[in-house]
C-alpha cells in the first residue's frame, strides 16, 4: 500500500473537481469545446449524499476531458479500486451524421460498442451541422436524430439530445446540464455503495474511507466528506489503541514541534507510514487538518476552534504518555504552536458575522481558552529558562502554574561544558532578585509558580544521581520552596547569605568536583541546561525570539494575555477577561504605566468585591492604591484606603490597618484640590437601637439614639456627623438631616450617638444616609446594620428591609374630648354642660382649652367652671366604655379631684392633676329660644325636628411641650322644653260643652312637678260657667316621672265669634301656662338652673313657668250653611256646547245662631274654573239674597262651555265670607266630569 501513497497524495493535492469524459466519435470537440466549457461551473447541481438524501450544490466544478487524454489511461484493477474517485463521472458521446445508410452501417455499431459498458454513465449529443437554409440537410439530420433516439433512448431514461451548431435551441443547455447531473449522481451513488461494501469487508486497504471522503469533497458534499474523515479517525484510534502491538509514535524529527493542525501537506504520507498504518503523531494531525479544511469550506470557524481546542487537550495527553521519548518540552512547544495556529486561522475577518449571537459568544470563549492555554504553556517555558522573577506572582498565575506538571524527560538536560559564563550570569540574576514590598509596607510570602520544587525535580531526573553534594540538596530544598532562590535570600540575614554564596561557589568549582559521582545541579545550571535544550527543540524562530530575552518575553506575554482578555470580554465569560486585565495591569504597573494599570485594577477590584473574594481583593487593592497615589488621584486613593480598611481584619495586621487609617487622616486634613464626598459604607455602618422604634406624636420634639459601628483600627474624630430620616409613607417626602451639635469621637467597634430630633410629620421613618466630615473630607455611608448584642463589635451585618426607627402618630390618638351626657337639657335656662377630657398615653400638663359657643348658646361667665376627676359618670356611650378600659383611673380606688376654674378670654388652663387622668369639665351655658312652643292635636300630630334644640360648642385644646399639639372638636348639645303639649276633645255634651284634654309629655331625663296650670282661650271659645280656666286644685302638685306623660281636663264651650277687625286685636291662639319645678342631676341630663342651685337654700323652692300655644278649631260637625252640587244634564257634556252648572245653598240655622256675619241676608259667592278647560258665560262673583230663616234655600246657576275633551275638574263654588267650618257640602260636587269630543260635521263626510 505504501507504493501508492505518493501518487494518492499528489492526486488529492491536484484534483478538486469531477471529470466528464468526452467520446468524440465524429471529431467535433475542437469546434464546440469552447461553448461547452463556458457553461462551467454548473450553476446548481442536485446530488445524493451518503444517506441518499438530495443535496443542492452551488457552482459545481467539473472538467471536460477527451477519452483519448493520457490522464484517463487505463490502470491495473487494484489501482482502479483505490483511485476510482478520479475516474470520469459521466461520458458525453459526440456524434454527427447526414446519411441514414452511414448511420446504420458505420455509426450505429460503433455507438453500440461504446455504450455497452454498464459501469459508465453516458448520453449522446447529436451535433447537427446542417445549415438552416438547406432544407434537405435539415430534414436528413432530423431523421438521423430520430433514429438515434429510437435505438438508444428508452421510456425510463432519455439519453439523447440535439445540438445545432449554427444556433442551438434555448433549452439545450438546460437539457445538457440535467443529463450530466443525472449521470454524475448515478455514478456517485454507485461508487459510494462500492466503497461502503469494501469498508465493511475490513480489508487491509485502509485508504478506502479516505478515498470515499475525497470523492465527496470533489463533489462538494463537504458534510459527507467530514463524516467520512470523522469515521476514519475513529477507526484509526481503535487501531492505535489496540493492545499487544508496539508502534512508533513519531514526533522526533526536526520541525515536529511546530504543530501541523491546519497543514495537511506538512509531510508526505510516504514518510509517516509504518508497516500497515501510520505514525500517530503525524497522522492524527493530518486527519484534523483535512477536517478543519472542510469546516472552513463550510464557513464554520467556530467548530474549527471547538474541535481544535478539544484536539489539543486530547493530543497533549498523548504527548504526555510518550514524553520520555520526545525532545525536551516537546509537549509545551507543540501546544503553543497549535494554539497560535488555530488562533491565526480563525481570526480572519471573512468569518465575522456569519453565526448567531450565542454561537459567536461561544466562539470568542473558545478563542479565549486557546489564548489562555498558550499563555500558560508559554509561562512554563519562560520559568524553565530563568524568567520566573519576571512573571507576576498573582493568584491566577499561581493557580494555573501550580497545577501544571513539570516536563518529564527521560533524562533531565545537563549543562553544556562551555556554559559557565551563562551559569554565573543566571546566578547573579537570582541573587539580585528581591521580593517587592507593596505599598503601606505590606509584606507577603510570594505565591508559588510551580507544582513542586524545580531543583529537586530536575536532580531527581538526572541520569546518574547518587550521593552528590547533600548540602546543596538541602540548601536547595530549604531556600527554594517555590522554585526560586529569591524567596530564601529575602528571608536570610546578610552574613548567612554571604556564607551560602561562598559555599555554593566553592562546591561548584571544577577543582573540587569528583567525576565519578554526579554533583546535584544548582538552580542556575538547571535554567541554562533547559535553555540550551529548548533551543534544539524549538524550530519556530518567532517562538524562540519571544524567549530570547526578558523584554521579548514580556512583549509576547502581553500579547497572549491581551488576546485572551479581549476574547473573554466578547464572550459570556467576561469575568475571566477582567481577571486577565489584572495581569496586564501588573505589567503596566511594573513598568511605571500607572494610568493604564489603575484602569485595569479598578475593573478587577470591582469584580472581586462583587463576588466577595476578599483575599484576592486584598492582593490587588494595595497596587491600585499605589497607582492612584502616583497619579495624584486623591479621591480614588482615599476610596482604596477605605476599602482596605473595610476588608476582613485577618487579611492585614494591625500595623498595616493603622497605616491605612493614617493615610486617610493625612489626606483629610491636607489641602485637597478637589475635595469630593467619600463613600465609607463598607467601613462605617449604623442602625437604630435594638428594640421597638421610638414612638412620638405629631409635632413632638425628642432625641434619637443611633448606633454606629466603626471599622477603623484606632479612634477617629469626626468634626461633624448627621443622619437622615426617610419617610416610608410618601416617596415624595424628602430626607431630613439630623445633625450632631458637637464633634464625635468614634472608637473601634460599637458607638452610640445622640442627635436632636425636631417635630416630624406623622408616619414611619427609617434611617437614610449617615454623613459627616473629617477635616476637609466629607464622607457618607448608606449601610445599615442589624445591631447585634451590646457586647458585639460586628458591624458588617446588614439587614433588609430596613427596620423603622421612628414612628410618629397622628394627633387624634393623643386626647379625646366628648360630651359627658347625651340627654337633653332645659332650654332658656342655665344648665351645666359636661365635657370629658381623656388623654391617651400622653401628658396634658399645662394644656389650654379654648371654648367657643355657637349661635343660640351663651356661657354664663359670672359663674365658675368646675373640673373634677372623671369616673363612670354615665357610661352611656360605647366609645366611652371602650376608651376608659385603657386608662389608669378606671379602678374603684382612684383619687377624686375637684377644682373650680375661671374662664378668661374664652380659655381655661388645666390643673396639674388633670395631665394624665380622665377628667370632666362642667361649663354653665344658657340656650336661648325666643319662639313660643306650640302644641299638637290628634288632627295635627307633632312634627318636631331633631335640629330645633341642637346647639354646638367648639373646643380647641392646645397641649404638648411647646403647645405644638392641637386637638379640635365640636361638641353637640341637645336642649329642649320640659314638656310637649298635645290636645284632644275627650267628649261633647248635649248642651254644647266640650271636655278638652291637655296631655303633657316629659322631654327631659328629670322629675317634673306641676304646681299649677291655667288655659288662656282664643276667640270663639269660652270657659264654662264663671271659671278662671284652672282645673281643680286638688290635682296639684302633679309629679311626672322622666319620659312619662300626664293629662289635665278643661271644660270649654263655643263662644260668640267677633268680627274680623276685632279678631285681629285679640290673641289668635290659646295659651297653656304651667308652673312647675324640676329635680335632676347634671350627670344625667336636665337639672335645676345653675342660678337656682347656687343662690337658693336647699329647702327653698323657686318655680319655673312654661308656656305653650294651643290652636283650637270650632267643631266641623255643626255647620250653618249647606252647599250641594246639582246633577248635570243626562245627555252628557260635549266640547263647544253650552251647559248650565247649578248649586243649591240652604241655611241650616237661624240668623241668631249661625255665628256668621251677613249684610241684609246677602251671601257672597265666587265660581272658580280652569280657563284652559272651561269658558264661563256670566258673572263669576256676586251677591245673592238668602233669607235669614232656617231652611231657606236658593239656586245659583252659571252657563259654561267645555273647551277640551276628557275627564276634567268641574267649576267650583266658594263662599269667601263664610268660614269653611260653617259650610257643609251636601251633596258634594264630583271630582271629575267626562267631556265628549265635538260632533262630526256632515260637510266633511265622504259618500261611499
From TrEMBL:
Subcellular location(s) per record: Golgi apparatus
Alphabetical keyword list: Golgi apparatus, Transport
Domain of life: Eukaryota
Domain (TRAPPC10/Trs130 N-terminal): residue spans on this chain: 16-305
InterPro entries the UniProt entry points to: TRAPPC10/Trs130 (IPR045126), TRAPPC10/Trs130_C (IPR022233), TRAPPC10/Trs130_N (IPR056913)
Domain TRAPPC10/Trs130 C-terminal: 1131-1213
GO annotations of cellular component type: cytosol; TRAPPII protein complex
Cross-referenced Pfam families: TRAPPC10 (PF12584), TRAPPC10_1st (PF23036)
GO biological process assignments: early endosome to Golgi transport; intra-Golgi vesicle-mediated transport
Name of the featured protein: Trafficking protein particle complex subunit 10
Amino acid at each position: 500500500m505504501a507504493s501508492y501513497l505518493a501518487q494518492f497524495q499528489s492526486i488529492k493535492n491536484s484534483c478538486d473537481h469531477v471529470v466528464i469524459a468526452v467520446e468524440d466519435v465524429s471529431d467535433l470537440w475542437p469546434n464546440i469545446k469552447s461553448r461547452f466549457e463556458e457553461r462551467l461551473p454548473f450553476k446548481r447541481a442536485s446530488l445524493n449524499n451518503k444517506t441518499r438524501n438530495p443535496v443542492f450544490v452551488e457552482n459545481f466544478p467539473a472538467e471536460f476531458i477527451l477519452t483519448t487524454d493520457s490522464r484517463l489511461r487505463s490502470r491495473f484493477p487494484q489501482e482502479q479500486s483505490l483511485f476510482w474517485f478520479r475516474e470520469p463521472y459521466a461520458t458525453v458521446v459526440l456524434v454527427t451524421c447526414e446519411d441514414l445508410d452511414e448511420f446504420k452501417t458505420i455509426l450505429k455499431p460503433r455507438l453500440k460498442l461504446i455504450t455497452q459498458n454498464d459501469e459508465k454513465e453516458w448520453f449522446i449529443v447529436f451535433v447537427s451541422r446542417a445549415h438552416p437554409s438547406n432544407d434537405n440537410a435539415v430534414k436528413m439530420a432530423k431523421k438521423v436524430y430520430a433514429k438515434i433516439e429510437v435505438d438508444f433512448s428508452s421510456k425510463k431514461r432519455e439519453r439523447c439530445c440535439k445540438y445545432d451548431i449554427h444556433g442551438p435551441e434555448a433549452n439545450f443547455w438546460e437539457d445538457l446540464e440535467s443529463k450530466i447531473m443525472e449521470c454524475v449522481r448515478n455514478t456517485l451513488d454507485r461508487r459510494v455503495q462500492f466503497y461502503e461494501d469494501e469498508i465493511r469487508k475490513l480489508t487491509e486497504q485502509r485508504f478506502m474511507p479516505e478515498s470515499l471522503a475525497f470523492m465527496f469533497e470533489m463533489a462538494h458534499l463537504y458534510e459527507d466528506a467530514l463524516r467520512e474523515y470523522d469515521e476514519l479517525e475513529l477507526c484509526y484510534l481503535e487501531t492505535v489503541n489496540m493492545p499487544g502491538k508496539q508502534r512508533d509514535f513519531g514526533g522526533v524529527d526536526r520541525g515536529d514541534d511546530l504543530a501541523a493542525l491546519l497543514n495537511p501537506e506538512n509531510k508526505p504520507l510516504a514518510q509517516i507510514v509504518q508497516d500497515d498504518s501510520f505514525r500517530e503523531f503525524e497522522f492524527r494531525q493530518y486527519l484534523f487538518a483535512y477536517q478543519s479544511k472542510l469546516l472552513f469550506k463550510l464557513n464554520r470557524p467556530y467548530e474549527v476552534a471547538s474541535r481544535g481546542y478539544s484536539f489539543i487537550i486530547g493530543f497533549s495527553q498523548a504527548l504526555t504518555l510518550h514524553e520520555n521519548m520526545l525532545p525536551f518540552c516537546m509537549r509545551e512547544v507543540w501546544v503553543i504552536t497549535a494554539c497560535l495556529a488555530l488562533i491565526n486561522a480563525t481570526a480572519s475577518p471573512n468569518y465575522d458575522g456569519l453565526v448567531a449571537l450565542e454561537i459567536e459568544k461561544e466562539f470568542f470563549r473558545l478563542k479565549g481558552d486557546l489564548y489562555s492555554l498558550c499563555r500558560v504553556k508559554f509561562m512554563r517555558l519562560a520559568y524553565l529558562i530563568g524568567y520566573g522573577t519576571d512573571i507576576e506572582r498573582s493568584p491566577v498565575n499561581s493557580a494555573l502554574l501550580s497545577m501544571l506538571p513539570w516536563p518529564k524527560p527521560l533524562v533531565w538536560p545537563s549543562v553544556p561544558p562551555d556554559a559557565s559564563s551563562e551559569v554565573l550570569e543566571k546566578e547573579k540574576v537570582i541573587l539580585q532578585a528581591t521580593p517587592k514590598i507593596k505599598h503601606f509596607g505590606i509584606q507577603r510570602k510570594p505565591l508559588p509558580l510551580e507544582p513542586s520544587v524545580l531543583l529537586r525535580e530536575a536532580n531527581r531526573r538526572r541520569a546518574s544521581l547518587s550521593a552528590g553534594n547533600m548540602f546543596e540538596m538541602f540548601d536547595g530544598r530549604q531556600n527554594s520552596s517555590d522554585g526560586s532562590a529569591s524567596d530564601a535570600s529575602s528571608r536570610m540575614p546578610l552574613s548567612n547569605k554571604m556564607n551560602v554564596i561562598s559555599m555554593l561557589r566553592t562546591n561548584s568549582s571544577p577543582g573540587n568536583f569528583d567525576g565519578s559521582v554526579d554533583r546535584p545541579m544548582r538552580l542556575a545550571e538547571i535554567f541554562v541546561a533547559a535553555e540550551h535544550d529548548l533551543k534544539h527543540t524549538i524550530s519556530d524562530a518567532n517562538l524562540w525570539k519571544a524567549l530570547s530575552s526578558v523584554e521579548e518575553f514580556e512583549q509576547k506575554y502581553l500579547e497572549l494575555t491581551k488576546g485572551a482578555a479581549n476574547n473573554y470580554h466578547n464572550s459570556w465569560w467576561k469575568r475571566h477577561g477582567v481577571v486577565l486585565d489584572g495581569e496586564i495591569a501588573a505589567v503596566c504597573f511594573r513598568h511605571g504605566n500607572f494610568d493604564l494599570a489603575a484602569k485595569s485594577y479598578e475593573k478587577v477590584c470591582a469584580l472581586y468585591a462583587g463576588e466577595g473574594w476578599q483575599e484576592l481583593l486584598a492582593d490587588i487593592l494595595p497596587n491600585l492604591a499605589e497607582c492612584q497615589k502616583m497619579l495624584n488621584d486623591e479621591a480614588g486613593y482615599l476610596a482604596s484606603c477605605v476599602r482596605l480598611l473595610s476588608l476582613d481584619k485577618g487579611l492585614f495586621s494591625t500595623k498595616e490597618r493603622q497605616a491605612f487609617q493614617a493615610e486617610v487622616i493625612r489626606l483629610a486634613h491636607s489641602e485637597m484640590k478637589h475635595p469630593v464626598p467619600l463613600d465609607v459604607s463598607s467601613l462605617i455602618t449604623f442602625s437604630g437601637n435594638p428594640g421597638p422604634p421610638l414612638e412620638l406624636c405629631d409635632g413632638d420634639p425628642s432625641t434619637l439614639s443611633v448606633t454606629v459601628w466603626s471599622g477603623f483600627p484606632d479612634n477617629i474624630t469626626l468634626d461633624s456627623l448627621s443622619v437622615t430620616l426617610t419617610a416610608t409613607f410618601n416617596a415624595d417626602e424628602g430626607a431630613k438631616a439630623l445633625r450632631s451639635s458637637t464633634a464625635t469621637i468614634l472608637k473601634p467597634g460599637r458607638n452610640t450617638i445622640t442627635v436632636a430630633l425636631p417635630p416630624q410629620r406623622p408616619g414611619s421613618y427609617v434611617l437614610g444616609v449617615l454623613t459627616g466630615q473629617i477635616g476637609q473630607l466629607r464622607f457618607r455611608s448608606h449601610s445599615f446594620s442589624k445591631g447585634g448584642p451590646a457586647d458585639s463589635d460586628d458591624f458588617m451585618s446588614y439587614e433588609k428591609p430596613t427596620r423603622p426607627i421612628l414612628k410618629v402618630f397622628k394627633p387624634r390618638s393623643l386626647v379625646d374630648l366628648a360630651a359627658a351626657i347625651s340627654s337633653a337639657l332645659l332650654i332658656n335656662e342655665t344648665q351645666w354642660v359636661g365635657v370629658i377630657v381623656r388623654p391617651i398615653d400622653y401628658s396634658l400638663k399645662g394644656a389650654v382649652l379654648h371654648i367657643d359657643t355657637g349661635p343660640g348658646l351663651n356661657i354664663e361667665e359670672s359663674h365658675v367652671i368646675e373640673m373634677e376627676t372623671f369616673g363612670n359618670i354615665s357610661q352611656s356611650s360605647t366609645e366611652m366604655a371602650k376608651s376608659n378600659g385603657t386608662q389608669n383611673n378606671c379602678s374603684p380606688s382612684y383619687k377624686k379631684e375637684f377644682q373650680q376654674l375661671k374662664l378668661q378670654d374664652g380659655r381655661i388652663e388645666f390643673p396639674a392633676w388633670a395631665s394624665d387622668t380622665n377628667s370632666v369639665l362642667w361649663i354653665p351655658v344658657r340656650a336661648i329660644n325666643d319662639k313660643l312652643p306650640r302644641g299638637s292635636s290628634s288632627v295635627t300630630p307633632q312634627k318636631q325636628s331633631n335640629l330645633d334644640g341642637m346647639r354646638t360648642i367648639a373646643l380647641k385644646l392646645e397641649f404638648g411641650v411647646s403647645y405644638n399639639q392641637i386637638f379640635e372638636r365640636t361638641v353637640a348639645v341637645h336642649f329642649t322644653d320640659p314638656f310637649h303639649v298635645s290636645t284632644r276633645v275627650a267628649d261633647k255634651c248635649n248642651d254644647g260643652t266640650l271636655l278638652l284634654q291637655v296631655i303633657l309629655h316629659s322631654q327631659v331625663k328629670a322629675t317634673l312637678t306641676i304646681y299649677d296650670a291655667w288655659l288662656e282661650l282664643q276667640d270663639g271659645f269660652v270657659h264654662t260657667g264663671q271659671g278662671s280656666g284652672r282645673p281643680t286644685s286638688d290635682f296639684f302638685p302633679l309629679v311626672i316621672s322622666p319620659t312619662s306623660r300626664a293629662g289635665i281636663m278643661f271644660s270649654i264651650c263655643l263662644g260668640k265669634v267677633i268680627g274680623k277687625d276685632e279678631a285681629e286685636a285679640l290673641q289668635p291662639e290659646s295659651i297653656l301656662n304651667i308652673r312647675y319645678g324640676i329635680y335632676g342631676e347634671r350627670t344625667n341630663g336636665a337639672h335645676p338652673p345653675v342660678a337656682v342651685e347656687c343662690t337658693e337654700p336647699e329647702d327653698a323652692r323657686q318655680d319655673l313657668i312654661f308656656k305653650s300655644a294651643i290652636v283650637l278649631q270650632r267643631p266641623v260637625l255643626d255647620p250653618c250653611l249647606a252647599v250641594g252640587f246639582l246633577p248635570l244634564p243626562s245627555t252628557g257634556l260635549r266640547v263647544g256646547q253650552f251647559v248650565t252648572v247649578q248649586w243649591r245653598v240652604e241655611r241650616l240655622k237661624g240668623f241668631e245662631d249661625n255665628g256668621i256675619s251677613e249684610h241684609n241676608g246677602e251671601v257672597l259667592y265666587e265660581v272658580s274654573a280652569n280657563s284652559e278647560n272651561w269658558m264661563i258665560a256670566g258673572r263669576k262673583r256676586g251677591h245673592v239674597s238668602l233669607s235669614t230663616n232656617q231652611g231657606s234655600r236658593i239656586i245659583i246657576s252659571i252657563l259654561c262651555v267645555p273647551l277640551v275633551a276628557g275627564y276634567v275638574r268641574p267649576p267650583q263654588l266658594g263662599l269667601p265670607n263664610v268660614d269653611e267650618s260653617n259650610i257643609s257640602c251636601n251633596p258634594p260636587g264630583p271630582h271629575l266630569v267626562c267631556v265628549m269630543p265635538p260632533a262630526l260635521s256632515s260637510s266633511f263626510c265622504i259618500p261611499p
